[in-house]
């Protein structure tokens, strides 16, 4: 995971963000029931506790896609947590957004490619596995099968 903030946000010059600090900000997340939202809330327990506390100052605003949320962050509506692999290589909106890593312990998640053992197209799975590995996505570590 990585934190995205507007270039004008007070955190924009920070080198790392403790996950505990997120509870003081307006968070922009995907809608309820989306698995990535659930993963962020599980990985950053401070967000879960804060949003469930009556009278909490922390707010959560929902967006329909990561790209929509990225643009909402750029407009100054709040901050978000993205998969590290979602940080564009060519830094789209580089003049509007800053991506800041978490300080240790860094929250993470596991995404796997799974198939039925009875699936007859093992060559297709090998091609998909090789393509994903060739992408060398930021923030990812391949796990051997």
Taking strands numbered 1, 2, ... along the chain, how are they ordered across the largest sheet? 4-1-5
Provide the CATH superfamily of the domain at 2-101.
Periplasmic binding protein-like II
Helix count from the secondary structure assignment: 4
- The CATH class designation of the domain at 2-101 is Alpha Beta
Chain-averaged pLDDT: 82
Question: What can be said about the biggest beta sheet?
Answer: 3 strands, antiparallel
Low-confidence stretches: none
First and last CA, distance: 23 Å
Task: Give the topology string: H per helix, E per strand.
Answer: EEHHEHEEH
Radius of gyration: 17 Å
Using the alpha-carbon principal axes, give the shape.
elongated
CATH architecture classification name of the domain at 2-101:
3-Layer(aba) Sandwich
E-strand count: 5
Query: Percent of residues in beta strands?
Result: 5-15%
CATH topology of the domain at 2-101: D-Maltodextrin-Binding Protein, domain 2
Structural class: alpha+beta
Give the oligomeric state: single chain
Proportion of residues in helical segments: 25-40%
